[in-house]
Amino acid sequence: MTVLTCPKHAVVLQPRNTRYGVFHACTYPGCTVGCWDGRTSTPADQETRTIRNECHCLFDPLWRDHKTGRGRRRRNAYLWLSKKMKIPVDDTHFGMFDFDQCRRALVFIREFIASGQRFSKSRQDGYEVVREGGGA
Q1: Whole-angstrom Cα distance, residue 54 to residue 1?
Q2: How many CB atoms sit inside 10 A of residue 18's CB?
Q3: CA 90 → CA 10, 43, 83, 87, distances in Å?
Q4: Which residues pair with 5 in a beta bridge?
Q5: In this structure, is residue 136 part of a structural domain?
Q6: Are residues 58 and 106 in the same domain?
Q7: pLDDT, tens digit only, all 136 positions of the chain
Q8: Taking a C-beta distance cutoff of 8 angstroms, is the pair 77, 63 a contact?
Q9: How many H helices and E strands in the chain?
Q10: What is the pTM of this model?
Q11: Residue range(s) defining the domain that contains residue 7
């Protein structure tokens, strides 16, 4: 098991159970560094956690569809972002991004929103975007 440490204070992050899962936090007084259990989160200070949340708030509605196609739209969206960020899709998780990577992602996401495009659920071998109200 990987030992998670605070990048600011070099102390081991202490796990605590929450209703959302296990959260690992620095015990240094006043420190806000923490991360969630699992492979898709790395220790981050409050500033980085805030911008990660901003990324999710803008990005997730682009692929969410609670009626049909949610899985493929999500995959298409993350494939698109991985290509924009020039990183492997398996590393394309906001919880793994540092502050600067989140800022870059926000630029791409805002450009995508402004373009009026959306993610298709039709392609399985790669991402596909379509203009609102039209085809690819």
Answers
A1: 30
A2: 10
A3: 27, 18, 12, 8
A4: 12
A5: no
A6: yes
A7: 578 888 888 888 899 898 878 888 888 888 888 888 766 678 888 899 899 999 999 999 888 865 554 567 888 899 999 999 999 998 999 988 999 999 999 999 999 999 888 777 665 545 566 655 544 4
A8: yes
A9: 3, 5
A10: 0.73
A11: 1-43
